[in-house]
Description:
Radius of gyration: 20 Å
Number of domains: 2
Shape: elongated
Low-confidence stretches: 1-23
Bound molecules: FE2/S2 (inorganic) cluster
Amino acid sequence: MNQTGLNDNCGCNCSCTNTENPASTIDMEKVYEILNKHKGQQGALMPILNELQDVFGYLPEGALKEVSKAIDIPYAEIYGVATFYSRFTLKPRGEHTISVCLGTACYVKGSKEIFARLVEELDVEGSGDTTEDGKFTLEATRCLGCCGLAPVITIDEDVYGKLVPDDIPNILKKYY
Length: 176
Ligand code: FES
C-alpha cells in the first residue's frame, strides 16, 4: 500500500497483487484459494491451470506469476505449458467464438478471404484475438466436418456455410 492508500502493484484500492493493466484486475482471492487447495501436491501444475482456466475463462499473467512462486516452477516453464495446450488461453475470451475453417476443402473455396473479412470487420489482429468490446474471439481452425458446406464458419454452435465475404456483416449483426 502506498501513501495514497492505493495498492503499489496495480494502482487500485483492491488487495490484489496484479501487476498488469489495472483495467484487467483479477480476483486474486480465487487464485490463492486454488493454490491452497493444491498445496504440497505432486504434479499440481496441470490441475491448477485447469481450474484457473475454468474460473477466469483464461490464464491471467498475474495468476501465472503467483503459481510460479507457489509451486516453485519458473514462470517461463509455466508459460510454455500454458501456450502448448489449446485448452488454455492467455487472453480473455469473447462472449462468442468465431471459428473459421481453414481445412483443405474450405481453403480452396475461399476461407482465407472469409477470414480476412472477419479480421477487418472485427478489427482484430488474427487468430486467437478478441474484439475490443469483448464480444467475439476469432479463431482459425481445422476441418469442422461439414466440407460439403465449404467455406464454413461457426459462431458458438451455429454453422454458416457456402459463404462469401459479403455475408459476414449480416451474420455478425445477429450477435449484437
Ligand atoms: S475443410 Fe472445412 S469443413 Fe472440412
